[in-house]
């Protein structure tokens, strides 16, 4: 893997983090279900995801890249179950991508990036678990 390809993967991670931070926040503001604790958690997770975007962007700049400002496609959804099902899939996509990035970073000898993504990966796994539990409550 070239360093250019690696930087492109980091930008894909940024675009994904931007997407879910907006998506989860818009789900929070448009939530119409009695389970208000899920609505509140969507807001908290959205903020965590924005911090991930910032952390990855800072690392990308350190590596000589330019962070994207364009999120992946945002899909808020209409009904709560549709929203949360989508969120589970998005978290699963992040887990797959971030596992690849960790492997690539380790092959390139980039421990700082590997460690950053290991930390983010653990948080993404917690988000997926939360969304899976929330889906059962709807």
What topology emerges from the helices and strands here?
Blueprint: H1 3-30, H2 36-62, H3 80-107, H4 111-137
Helix fraction, binned, reads over 70%
Number of helices: 4
Strand content: under 5%
Count of the domains: 1
Which structural category fits the helices and strands? mainly alpha
Shape: elongated
Describe the structure.
The chain has 138 residues and is mostly helical. The chain has one domain (3-137): Ferritin (Up-down Bundle). The protein is built from 4 helices and no strands. Helix 2 (36-62) runs antiparallel to helix 4 (111-137). The mean pLDDT is 97.
Short description:
With 138 residues, this protein is mostly helical. The chain contains 4 helices and no strands.
List the keywords:
138 residues, elongated, mainly alpha, Ferritin, 4 helices
């Amino acid at each position: 893997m070239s360093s250019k390809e690696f930087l492109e993967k980091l930008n894909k991670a940024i675009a994904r983090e931007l997407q879910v931070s907006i998506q989860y926040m818009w789900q929070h503001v448009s939530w119409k279900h009695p389970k208000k604790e899920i609505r509140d958690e969507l807001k908290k997770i959205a903020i965590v995801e924005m911090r991930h975007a910032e952390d990855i962007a800072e690392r990308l700049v350190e590596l000589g890249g330019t962070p994207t400002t364009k999120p992946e496609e945002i899909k808020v959804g209409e009904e709560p179950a549709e929203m949360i099902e989508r969120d589970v899939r998005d978290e699963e996509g992040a887990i797959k991508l971030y596992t690849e990035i960790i492997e690539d970073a380790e092959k390139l000898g980039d421990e700082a990036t590997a460690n950053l993504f290991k930390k983010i990966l653990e948080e993404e796994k917690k988000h997926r678990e939360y969304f899976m539990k929330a889906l059962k409550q709807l």
